Amino acid sequence: MNKYTRIRQIGEGAFGKAVLVRRKDSSVQCVIKEINTTKMSPKEREESRKEVAVLAQLKHPNIVSYIESFEERGTLYIVMNYCSGGDLYSKINERRGQLFSEDQILNWFVQLCLAIKHIHDRKILHRDIKSQKFPRKISFGTVQLAHTCIGTPYYLSPEIVENMPYNNKSDIWSMGCVLYELTTLKHAFEAGNMKNLVLKIIRGNYPPVSPQFSYDLRGLIAQLFKRNPRDRPNVNAILRKNFIMQRVRKLLSDQDLADEFSHTVMHGHKIAKALPPAPKPSADPARKPAPGPRPGSANKRYDPAAVYGAPLNSARRSLGDQKKRPSTPGRPVPVPGQVDWEKKKKERQELEQRRRAEMRKRVIDMASSQSIV
């Protein structure tokens, strides 16, 4: 840290903070994320170092650039470029009800799509897309360093709040939340408390977008908010839409366009093969029992089950592993000692229904104590 002069703190999370600094040798301003690693287990500290190495590989004009990282006295420091123009959340608040033009909205959204495409093509999920993380460039943080479930509830997908398996389509839902926010200056799903917010997200109902915006834009928002993840388009499909591609061609040169769209998964190469050395760990502080990480906190790989309970598909897998008897027409009544497969099937369905009801009740009970400001 002796290379930098602190200016002011600009953000803080459960396990770290962001500080605006100035390099002493060039007077260039940067942002340093300070992560307290003393609260992490040895395995979590090692995973954080590996994820920082992955972060260093993300080179894209719409992603905030990584500069360097190092460790000192139990703290991991990540140095990033400073975006002085502010974020979309601030710009939305400054509008005071006056809507953005569709031209401006699509220009911003296309830049967001290009940034997300860059990480999805490399099999990386963002998991924390929101207007606060999108200045002119999207701020990308690792799961340990950036994601807090309860911290950003407006952008959570239905599969996450229902404790179901999730993939890159959860990022697509969050992108829909940002696009809706740009067109209406409001969150798509709002409520006075967490209980009602969770229910609104699960149902997927949101106030309609003003008809002053084009059919294409309103239709895209509807596609991004499909409750079933499989029905949502991936980011490459979004970018190939005619009215979106027109914007892409204005932002990218012919060479950049060819580079971006000549592949979907980095030409089959694994990003881990070219990783730079991870930050060199300093001597660990005196060992003492570390407090257990909180569910959904920033120092732990996000596990929906830790926040919302056991996923439903665990019961489905365990029951599905049982050997099923082929169905035959006119099956005779089971003899003593023989497995009644019809009865087993009915019991499995009832078990799934009970588990779903219990899980939803846990979600609502857990969330009811949280309030939305």
UniProtKB/TrEMBL annotation:
One of its GO terms (molecular function) is protein serine/threonine kinase activity. Residues 4-244 form the Protein kinase domain. It holds the Pfam family Pkinase. ATP binds at residue 33. Its cofactor is Mg(2+). Keywords: ATP-binding, Kinase, Magnesium, Metal-binding, Nucleotide-binding, Serine/threonine-protein kinase, Transferase. Belongs to the protein kinase superfamily. NEK Ser/Thr protein kinase family. NIMA subfamily. This is non-specific serine/threonine protein kinase. It comes from Plakobranchus ocellatus.
